[in-house]
Here is the input.
Amino acid sequence: MRISANNTIGLIIDMQERLYPHIDNEDQLTKNTAILIEGLKAIGIKILVTEQYTKGLGFTIESLKVLLQDINFIEKQAFSCCDEPKFYEELTLTEARHVIIAGIEAHVCVMQTAIDLLNNGYIPVIVEDCVSSRRPNDKNISIERMRKEGAVITTYESILFELLRYSGTEAFKKVSKLVK
Here is the structure.
């Protein structure tokens, strides 16, 4: 199954300031996720962003927030994005079947969202180098489970070039510069 841009949406889950410093390999995660966001924007993919309980966890980290300025963030209390009515409403207004996912924590909100998306007929595409948890083993186990449940596991560079399909376009030039 190929993933195409015309039926895909991006989802950035809970990359928030009070939890983020405790996340494994957070500097690389920030860099990778920024490239993914810029690449999705260059290709014209709509992006949804969630924030879990902002009173306790704060808001999206500034380095990613500046890349997402034109997007309305969805606050949630549920771990799964699908249990948040505002998110699910936004998702169903699109024609997306594939949901490209980056975020934290892999073993909680990311995994529960992926499983619920699968149960609702969507195909979650987990960008492995754009998700993390506080402990590496939690991430590893959740990636394994999501794969077994039917989610697609990929990397930011792989999914961006799959969405592009062709070289020689303006979007290709922008993405090529991002991944160098």
